[in-house]
Amino acid sequence: MSTPTANWQRITVLLLVLALLVCCFFDAMFRNGLFAFRDAAHFYYPLLKFVQDQWAAGRVPLWNPYENLGQPLAANAPSSVFYPGKLIFLLPVSYAWAYKLYILGHVLLAAATAYRLARHAGTSVAAAGCCALSYAFCGNVLMQYCNVVFLVGAAWLPLALLFADRMLEKGRDGMRLRFSSALCFGIVLAMMTLGGDVQMAYNAGLLAAIYALLLWWQQRGYVRSTNAENPPGCHAHACVGMPGTAKNMPTQAWAWHPIRELRIDKILAARPTVLAVAAAAAFVLSAIQVIPSMEFARRSNRAATAEVDWLGHIENGTHGEHAYHFSVGPWRLAEYVWPNVAGRQYPVHRRWLEVVPAEGRIWTPTLYMGVIPLLLALSAMRFRLRPNEKSDEPAQPPPAASRDTWLTWSVVLAVLASFGYYGLGWILLEIHCAGGGDPHTFTLCGAPLGGLYWLMNHVLPGYLYFRYPAKLLVVAAVGLSVLAARGWDRAFTGQATRLRKATAGLAAVSLLAALAAVGVRPWWHEWMAGVRDNVLFGPLDAAGAWWDLFLAFVQTAAVCGLFWWLLPTTEKRPRTDNRKAWAAVATLVLVAVDLGMANRWLITCAPQTLWQTPSRMATAIREHEADKHEQIVRVYRHPLWTREAWAKSGYRRRLAETVAWDRNTLWPKYNLQVPLATTEVSGTMMLEDYRHFLFFGSDVPGLPGNDASDNEPRPAATVSHYAILPGDKTLPCGIRLNTDVPDATVWFNTSCLPRVWLIRDGRAIVQPETRQHWTIAHDEPDRVVIDVMLRRPATVVLSDQYYPGWQLTVNTDNDPPQSLPIRRVNRVMRGVDLPAGHHRLTYVYRPTSFYAGAAISAVGWLALIGTILVRRRFSPLPRGERGRG
Fold it and tell me: Which residue among 578, 593, 777, 845 is the one 20 to 30 A from 305 at the CA level?
């Protein structure tokens, strides 16, 4: 039953969550700002808009014709086409506001699920509130607003752990509730998968499997310790559950009869069984996403370049190398203790930690989760079950102890795995370099060798298809946050002596570090001279970096001092209930203020009008195409280049400047808003056949560009009508268009391969006069209709991506329509051999993988809804107790 104190603490928690949300997202909520950093700006905003436009046009968004000659859309997980949370885009608000609500809603969902997980763990309202604040607003979760699908995964993760605990912790619930929890766990995994974060669903399933093994191991150890306390002859646990055995019969403790009957309910209640039920439920409910994605992944560059090397060698430019990008250097763990101690990455370059030679790409600019939750979590960690701990179940360790051990090891393993590239091989490499060796001559092993992430890539099926070890710190964040809630209740019930000492010690160390920072200030600029200029944010602001360092120490010292004062002093002089409640609320406020001061800067916005301003180069291209009739205009955009002026000077509004420039130069996926088709988009995955085509060119004699002598990639010479290049590059056989975009030019390609062309006698026929013999009568993403007039037999080629699921129907003169097989031409294009005559070619996209997945998921969701309705109709439980599993 709720008490008045718990009720107003709930209100306090809700208000603090909302206050932090407003503090962090103020510009987006009240200043008409839109998220400007990384993928939030140029990837997810236009991609989700394109998906929504396809739904609004009455089409299922299965195919994207505007990237790489076309590629699957729904099968590409970040599109999250079938995620139920996307219903928010149906609200009667502008798309920009729906996009912001989508992100804000998942931050709130992360806070709500973390709160619920902590309450499930038996913590108080205030402790659960600390868990919600530290999880949803820590750097590792809050920063995922830049990568929306990973924010979705983070928002659902606490709920996945909750149901994993319910279905695996034996002895607490009946078999019916255990299976209900397994089904709920599968639903949560399906939501993660449909939301685009397949890796987090994989991680959640892996955590559940680890928990099952840990419970089994702990139960064995607990039984052994129990047997030691109850030697043979003691009847405390004798032959539990054995029919026909007297309770007081002297026998060996927990010794099952060798001919005990194998009962089906024992098999059904076994942990491997409920794990299998959860995995099956997750697959069935998300099959509409999983099956097409598996088909796409098998044909992608990830499958082709995800090579296994047990010595850890990685080849540049392959997915095997990209998989280790955004690894977390071990020295960055200091960011858990001191906020922004490494310096802020933006809007002005202050990240002085880049002075470390081994520092790599940064996924999350800060790991800070609040020093108070961190201290509480460390105080609650347990690595093994203590033998003297008792449980109500004869052969079960205490549920809370098992859960704490699981969370502790989850945190440790997640942090170790996040190191990624920095394995034992990297340590050997550093030793080699410290001895004066050349890093390029170190061939003994690769840097990732011996690391946990390296081991996961080699042992776990399919894990090498994922990327970026730093994403695993979200798992560490949820574990630390729940452990913080556990430590909270111990601290505020008087068991805070050691915690008070640790808090005071950290405050003292932080003050000494602040004094040391003051002492080294005269030499600071000289030490920072080796920090490289950032390509976006310019040279290092050394003075600003020093202030970030100094304030990090001061903030931690101040927060630790206040926390020390709020903690109970001794168990001999316990505080009154009112004073403890006041101290708990004051600590919650302190946690919120600490997180707001530390992480508010992560959310950066630019004026929303920038996304509504037409692209200058897109406007120039459309004007040049005004007298033409091409439905799809293809553009090659030179990849990964920025303005040189940005690296030479810093500017606080640099992100707004980059948004405007990226939109003007059609940095993917801004082309989807125009729309114009871009012919080289790496994105998350690219079809391996198309990647081969880009690097090795055409295999059909007579195509333009095969004998190109310039250094430009082949798309600019073969399949692109226009090319957007850096200002110092030119396009042979191109006509430059007039635009005023700095450091960029746009060229009309006079030798572009047409959308439809012919092959006759083994050679390509692409002369302009041949275009009079074909027209595109209908052009939609999933349906293309072409009218062709042939005087002689030929192969008619459509310069669109060849991919399973495309079907072709041909009407020749007055003959009935017939289905013909699509011939793969030039490795990546579609062709069909036709006789002379007038033909209507109808290409439609009907992927078997989608329909199979949709059928499986439809049956699964209907069965789930039916089960819920039947259960609610016929459940013998009172209404207030239904669904507790």
Answer: 845
Of all residues in the chain, what percent are helix, strand and coil, respectively (each to 5)? 55, 10, 35
CA neighbor of 132 nearest in space, from 156, 115, 117, 118: 115
Q: What is the mean pLDDT of the chain?
A: 87
Bridge partners for 342 per DSSP: none
Backbone angles phi, psi at 147, to 5 degrees: -130, 85
Q: What are phi and psi of 804, to 5 degrees?
A: -60, 140
DSSP letter, residue 702 = T
Tokens for 767?
């002369």
Q: Nearest Cα to 395, choosing from 295, 264, 289, 253? A: 253
Please report, for residues 38, 347, 596, 611, the alpha-carbon distance to residue 602 in angstroms, rounded to integers and kept in the order given: 12, 9, 10, 21
3-state SS track over 564-580: HHHCCCCCCCCCCHHHH
Residue 439: phi and psi, rounded to 5, are -60, -25
Which pLDDT score is estimated for 249? Answer: 40
Residues 6+ apart with CB under 8 A from 320: 305, 306, 307, 309, 314, 464
The amino acid at residue 547 is W
In the DSSP assignment, the letter for residue 647 is G
Compute the distance between CA of residue 845 and CA of residue 805 in angstroms, rounded to an integer: 6
What are the helix and strand counts (H, E) for the chain? Answer: 28, 19
Backbone angles phi, psi at 709, to 5 degrees: -100, -5
Burial of 51 (0-12, 13-18, 19+ CB in 10 A): buried
Residue 829: which H helix or E strand, with range? strand 829-834
Judged against a pLDDT cut of 60, whether residue 328 lies above it is answered with: yes
pLDDT digits (tens, 9 = 90+) for 176-225: 778 889 999 999 999 999 999 999 999 999 999 999 998 888 777 655 55
Q: Select from 560, 644, 678, 632 the least CA-distant residue to 798.
A: 632
What six digits make up the tokens of 594? 């600490």
**Tokens 């051999």 belong to which residue?**
833
Task: Work out the average pLDDT over 126-155.
Answer: 96
User: For 508-632, where are the E strands, in sequence order?
Assistant: 605-607
Examine residue 572 and say whether the peptide bond preceding it is cis (omega within 30 degrees of 0).
no
Measure the CA–CA gap between 482 and 114, rounded to whole angstroms: 8
More confident site: 3 or 818: 818
Total residue length of the chain: 885
Integer Cα distance of 816 and 819 in angstroms? 10
Token pair in block for residue 242: 């054995």
Q: End-to-end distance of the chain based on CA atoms, in angstroms? A: 19
Query: How many C-beta atoms surround the C-beta of residue 262 within 10 A?
Result: 6
CA dist 463 and 467 (Å) reads: 9
Residue 829 near residue 801 (C-beta atoms within 8 A): yes
Beta bridge partners of 677: 634
Q: Which of 141, 136, 143, 118 is nearest to 128 (CA)?
A: 118
What pLDDT score was predicted for residue 419?
A: 96
- Other Cβ atoms less than 10 A from the Cβ of 159: the count is 24
Helices (H), 270-309: 271-285, 287-298, 301-305
pLDDT value for 308: 66
Q: By C-alpha distance, which of 654, 664, 682, 648 is closest to 727?
A: 664
User: Considering only 101-110, 394-403, 452-461, 687-696, which range has the smallest mean pLDDT?
Assistant: 394-403
Highest mean pLDDT among 305-314, 442-451, 513-522, 759-768: 513-522
Mean pLDDT of 431-453: 86
1 exposure class (CB count in 10 Å sphere: 0-12, 13-18, 19+)? exposed
756-760 vs 763-765, strand pairing mode: antiparallel
Structure tokens at 778: 């209908």
User: Exposure of 197 by Cβ count < 10 A (0-12 exposed, 13-18 middle, 19+ buried)?
Assistant: buried
Interval 24-42 mean pLDDT: 94
The encoded tokens of residue 682 equal 């790496």
CA 819 vs. chain centroid, Å, equals: 41
DSSP state of 533: P
